[in-house]
Specification:
Distance between the termini: 63 Å
Helix content: 40-55%
Number of strands: 25
Mean pLDDT: 94
Strand content: 5-15%
Structural class: alpha/beta
Shape: globular
Radius of gyration: 29 Å
Largest sheet: 8 strands, mixed
């Protein structure tokens, strides 16, 4: 297949999806032209400035303002605001001809077939032969947009459906047209995975494709059976939220986020276009949904939906939920469900589900009905919407943020038990499920020798899950490749002489078990291997130190033990830096506090693009004590000669720590100084461990030598005085508290070298000792303990 490259993309449409897709592509290093319609008339502001209808400022206003609005939104659609320079805006009338320079043209305009076809008429006349043309439609049949067009257009035309928001949801549905070339489909699968960090799922050209077909049915059915069983919206959301490994919003809150008008329109569209889908046709008309739509209560975008909030006269936020029977709003109920608490006591996820499946209350009945209807529904969608069951699972996991896809959920309950559940609740599974069981196969998935396979419905045999050669999936190798473990860490053999250290404490927090794991992993690698990766595939790399342990020792004033704990942490970071084998760290998600410090000391970082990194210790009343303060000082001073430049760089590092800045992407972490130019940023988190392994191999094969310890220049008392004056001014201006000033001054004391009278070169250990001394002294402050206690209770720092 001839190589194909994407260097320039034209995005047709600048709405929420259009600007989101443009931002994602710009973040991937691609030049983007984003176009929209020309405004109908001048605004009063434009008239007052003398702008005419011929001016580009007027003609490009819609696309320009859409981009500006997107860049101001939170969470940000783009990895770094600086990447917005890669996006050029324009309009359909003046700039459409520029698509001749694009490698890919993606349409993201209004969901009307007639308007889309009018746009493709224009695109077909202007595009260069061979240019890829796709539509981001969420449900309009692809074949209706390619009919009657040239062969070259049809061969390069398909659906590429991003989910909103494009940066954060990983699903990328690929929907072939009748004549799309196989090599075009293969290209998009690889491009989406490698360069956009997406999970590419091949869908068939059916209404709703995969994600919305299953997701919208499931949402509508949950609403129906919740009301039938007399559940409140809060109860239903609790039962369909994190308990099932789904977003904690649950179902009703998710509908509010999506937009109730949008959800109703998609449901009605499925019923209209799927006359043979009996389970969709059987969805009942909802008086509750009709009430909301009639009153234009569309959810979050209108301010009211199943939930709403408002401030009372005192300024306090009050939250309300809709009573599904009375159709009136009442105060939000936050009571814990007894059955949920009972389930949590049962153990792991599988055991918790079994408690609910056996429960005789309305909650158990609802839970059984939901899973039975979901299992039955997805069983009948093969091979209608996809040839393979893993595509449906991937669609729900990456499009709707489910931790477990429907077939994975069914496997966890047991296929036979799931069949019995379906029958007992009055549904019917597709015959192929029983055929699978009759063949002796008891699950949809299994793992053999570290390789995951699945049951193929079409060929009625077992096949290897495709794409595994690009990934290292720790779940698949943990049982067979583990070489050492304790309760908080596990070391696995990745092959080729490389070990991996995986944290497995709560939220991967760093305590004694993790520290022991780091030390042991390095020892094992130095003895019998040639490199170490520190990485995991949990939601977050590490949220930092175990605050409960620190607080306990501080409250008991066990300063000797606390000093030893911090010293051990620091020594372990230095062991990462100065081991005899290359250490590659693979942060992703939250890499905070100690998680950031581990990353800072690695030979090489292979960071997922969605890495939220920061030294956040200031928020709990201390400074970074695991080498973070020392390391940021070292980096600030590295390779500089002019004193004024040194001072400015040190000030930047100081402010990054003092403001507890957390990067919102790996690229922003680079701007903050956490990630270096030599470090690697990968778009696809699933490829991260494999990439980290390859870098460890390369470093080993290049003849790795541990770095030599070098002196660090510190600036002494003059620079310290500058920081002290700054903190005094902040207190005088009532921007920070007295306690904040104490922490800030301790930080300045360490970063400038302590009591040194002039710029001096010191060792890393010198700074580590200062850092540890400052950390310990701050732990003795009453307000620091209050902050730690607040963080442990609420997850939010207390400012005092």
């Amino acid at each position: 297949m001839k190589n194909r490259y994407i260097n320039h993309v034209t995005v047709l449409g600048s709405g929420v999806m259009g600007s989101g897709i443009a931002s994602l592509l710009a973040g991937a290093g691609i030049r983007v032209l984003m176009l929209d319609i020309v405004p109908k008339e001048l605004t009063e502001a434009e008239k007052s400035k003398g702008i005419t209808q011929e001016s580009p400022v007027f003609r490009n206003r819609i696309a320009r303002e859409a981009l500006e609005k997107a860049l101001k939104s939170n969470p940000s659609p783009i990895y770094s605001k600086s990447f917005a320079s890669r996006i050029t805006v324009g309009n359909f009338d003046d700039d459409l001809e520029k698509i001749k320079n694009s490698d890919w043209v993606i349409e993201v305009i209004v969901e009307r077939l007639d308007i889309k076809n009018q746009m493709f008429d224009r695109v077909e006349k202007l595009r260069t032969p061979g240019t890829l043309v796709t539509t981001n439609t969420s449900g309009i049949p692809i074949h209706l947009m390619s009919e009657g067009r040239s062969q070259d257009f049809r061969e390069h035309f398909l659906g590429t459906h991003f989910f909103n928001p494009p940066r954060y949801l990983q699903l990328f549905e690929i929907i072939p047209g009748p004549d799309t070339k196989p090599e075009v489909l293969e290209f998009f699968q690889e491009f989406a995975s490698t360069y956009l960090g997406k999970t590419a799922v091949m869908a068939k050209d059916t209404p709703g494709f995969i994600g919305n077909r299953v997701g919208v049915y499931s949402m509508a059915k949950v609403m129906e059976i919740a009301q039938e069983n007399g559940l409140t919206v809060e109860e239903a959301d609790t039962l369909t939220g994190s308990l099932l490994g789904r977003p904690k919003t649950g179902t009703f809150k998710l509908a509010d986020l999506v937009g109730l008008d949008t959800a109703a329109k998609v449901t009605q569209g499925l019923q209209q276009h799927l006359p043979d889908d009996q389970m969709v046709q059987d969805l009942k008309d909802s008086k509750t949904m009709n009430f909301l739509l009639e009153n234009e209560y569309f959810g979050d975008k209108s301010g009211k939906g199943f939930y709403y909030k408002e401030k009372d006269k005192s300024g306090e936020t009050k939250r309300f939920a809709l009573d599904l029977e009375k159709l009136e709003y009442r105060p939000l109920e936050r009571e814990k469900l007894e059955i949920i608490e009972k389930a949590k006591m049962a153990g792991g996820t599988k055991q918790q589900w079994q408690v609910l499946l056996k429960d005789d209350s309305k909650y158990g009945k609802f839970f059984r009905q939901h899973l039975a209807s979901l299992f039955a529904y997805v069983s009948h969608r093969l091979p209608e919407i996809s040839d393979h069951l893993y595509s449906i699972d991937d669609g729900m996991k990456t499009g709707y943020a489910w931790k477990y896809g429907p077939f994975e959920t069914w496997d966890m309950i047991g296929v036979q038990q799931g069949l019995e559940l379906i029958k007992s609740e009055g549904y019917e599974a597709a015959p192929w499920v029983q055929t699978m069981l009759d063949s002796g196969r008891e699950s949809f998935y299994s793992i053999q020798d570290g390789v995951k396979d699945f049951y193929s419905v079409g060929s009625q045999d077992v096949q290897e899950l495709p794409g595994q050669d690009s990934f290292i999936i720790l779940d698949n190798i943990r049982k067979t490749k583990e070489v050492w473990s304790n309760k908080e860490a596990s070391v696995q053999d990745l092959g080729d002489g490389i070990l991996n250290l995986e944290f497995r404490s709560k939220m991967n927090s760093i305590g004694g078990g993790v520290i022991q794991g780091i030390q042991k992993a390095i020892d094992l690698a130095e003895q019998d291997h040639r490199g170490l990766v520190i990485g995991n595939q949990a939601d977050n790399f590490s949220v930092g130190a175990n605050l409960a342990m620190i607080m306990m020792m501080a409250v008991e004033q066990d300063w000797f033990e606390l000093n030893m704990a911090i010293k051990t942490f620091q020594d372990t970071m230095m062991k990462i830096r100065y081991s005899n084998i290359p250490v590659v760290v693979a942060p992703h998600g939250m890499a905070l506090g100690g998680g950031c410090e581990i990353s800072l000391h690695a030979d090489q970082m292979v960071a997922a693009v969605e890495t939220y990194m920061g030294l956040v210790e200031f928020g709990v009343g201390v400074i970074p004590g695991g080498g973070g303060t020392k390391e940021m000082t070292r980096r600030a001073m590295q390779g500089l000669e002019k004193d004024d430049v040194k001072t400015n760089r040190l000030r930047e590092a100081y402010m990054t720590i003092a403001m507890a800045k957390v990067a919102t992407s790996a690229y922003e972490a680079k701007e903050f100084g956490f990630i270096r130019d030599q470090d690697i940023i990968v778009m696809n988190k699933n490829r991260q461990i494999a990439e980290a392994k390859q870098y460890a191999i390369r470093m080993a094969e290049a003849g790795y030598r541990k770095p030599l310890q070098e002196k660090i220049q510190v600036l002494g008392k003059n620079a310290m005085g500058m920081f002290y004056v700054g903190s005094d001014q902040m207190v005088a201006g009532h921007f920070i508290s007295e306690h904040d000033r104490l922490i800030a001054n301790k930080l300045a004391y360490v970063m400038t070298g302590g009591s040194l009278s002039e710029p001096t070169e010191v060792s890393e250990q010198y700074l580590l000792d200062l850092e540890r001394e400052a950390f310990l002294s701050l732990c003795g402050e009453r307000k620091t303990l209050q902050r730690i206690e607040q963080m442990l209770k609420t997850g939010k720092p207390l400012r005092n």
